[in-house]
Write a structure and sequence with these properties.
The protein is α/β, with parallel strands linked by helices. It is built from 13 helices and eleven strands. The chain folds into two domains: 236 residues, Type I PLP-dependent aspartate aminotransferase-like (Major domain) (Aspartate Aminotransferase, domain 2); 115 residues, Aspartate Aminotransferase, domain 1, CATH 3.90.1150.10. It binds pyridoxal-5'-phosphate.
């Protein structure tokens, strides 16, 4: 049996008629950028999240970049975030000429540890950027409390948490702006690059609308300096076709996670810890083991692909080596222990069984 880490072709086949139809509709319309499909998706996704506004952009990285800029972050400002995340979290900050200040994570949720925020705040701090990693929310109440105390905006990186709930709210609606990626492998994925910013604040929505379109909302009037980062009509139509499946996909991911956590019984394996502050939508199922490399080799022999998310924390990446970040003991410890098992809605029960049996057969 060969089990891939992800299989976007299976996902496409499962929804082929709707997706083909969506693409054909756009081709027939002759309108490809900033049109009906994009507006429809912006409204639908904002409604799904419980936000007032949705503004489609070109990618998750752009969503972070433009979201921070709309919140007033400028070159030379500092933004507090984590190093244990996908590198584009920090790119969104660096693209503005701002400086990411990396702090450590909570060892159970793998998300920004709120207890470490205040020590990292300086007069240059202009935003806090928590990441809802692997499908689980960061501890937003604690983060928002500190942000309010210091009058700092909160920009949520929701790239791995479509549909995740914290308290009674979907992620992306708790801070000032929520930034999503629709990279194809995400829980809601386009068939190319795409992203969105959601917000409840009218002035931030207006700023992002300007920033994504050369600083212009009214044709030939350029109010501010802007970028070109728009959600195109083909991607928006595909997302319109797929949005209705997001909850079912997340439910299936939760079922698979449940199978793994109850059936994988191994003395050297630590399962994810779902926190009681919200739901976990399992974009990734990340376990920890002291024998990571041997486990991966063993699973490869069993025909199972695995991943590491992420092997090198951002402060150890060449692009960020100049920042002289303080040691981050939790981050630096777990990056050598983590392994991601395949988890995607189209995984079959037989494949799940094979993964469970193979992990259990790994010598302790
Ligand atoms: C946590 C996180 N933030 C940001 C991004 C960037 O999204 P995109 O690839 O759409 O630019 C990603 C996706 O790779 C991500 O996983």
């Amino acid at each position: 049996m060969n089990i891939p880490f992800g299989d976007l072709k299976r996902q496409y086949i499962a929804q082929k008629p709707e997706i083909d139809q969506a693409i054909q509709t756009v081709l027939n319309s002759g309108w490809f950028v900033l049109g009906e499909q994009g507006h429809r998706f912006e409204r639908a996704f904002a409604k799904y999240c419980g936000a007032k506004h949705g503004i489609g952009v070109g990618s998750g990285t752009d969503a972070l970049h433009l979201g921070l800029k709309a919140c007033g972050v400028q070159a030379g400002d500092e933004v507090i975030t984590v190093a244990h995340t996908a590198t584009p979290t920090a790119s969104g900050i660096s693209l503005l000429g701002a400086i990411p200040v990396f702090i450590d994570i909570d060892p159970e949720s793998y998300t920004l540890n709120p207890n470490l925020i205040e020590a990292a705040i300086t007069p240059k701090t202009k935003a806090i950027l928590p990441v809802h990693l692997y499908g689980q929310a960061a501890d937003m109440n604690a983060i928002l409390h500190i942000a309010q105390k210091h009058h700092l905006p909160v920009v949520e990186d929701c790239a791995q948490a479509h549909g995740t709930i914290y308290g009674n709210h979907k992620v992306g609606t708790l801070g000032d702006v929520g930034c999503f990626s629709f990279y194809p492998s995400k829980n809601l994925g386009a068939l190319g690059d795409a992203g969105i910013i959601i917000t409840n604040q009218d002035h931030l929505a207006h700023q992002v609308q300007l920033l994504r379109n050369y600083g212009s909302i009214t044709r030939d009037v350029h109010e501010i300096l802007g970028a070109n980062s728009r959600l195109d009509e083909i991607q928006a139509a595909i997302l319109n076709a797929k949005l209705g499946q997001l909850d079912a996909g997340n439910k299936r991911r939760q079922e698979i996670a449940q199978r793994y956590s109850t059936s994988i019984k191994h003395s050297d394996i630590q399962h994810p810890t779902p926190k009681d502050w919200g739901t976990h939508t399992y974009h990734l199922y990340v376990i920890q083991t002291s024998n990571r490399d041997l486990l991966r080799k063993h699973l490869e022999k069993c025909g199972i692909s695995t991943g590491i998310h992420y092997p090198t924390p951002i402060h150890k990446q060449p692009a960020y080596a100049h920042l002289s970040t303080q040691p981050l003991p939790v981050t630096e410890h777990i990056v050598n222990q983590i392994v991601s098992l395949p988890i995607f809605p189209e995984l079959t029960d037989a494949e799940i069984d094979h993964i469970v049996q193979s992990v259990n057969a790994f010598p302790a």
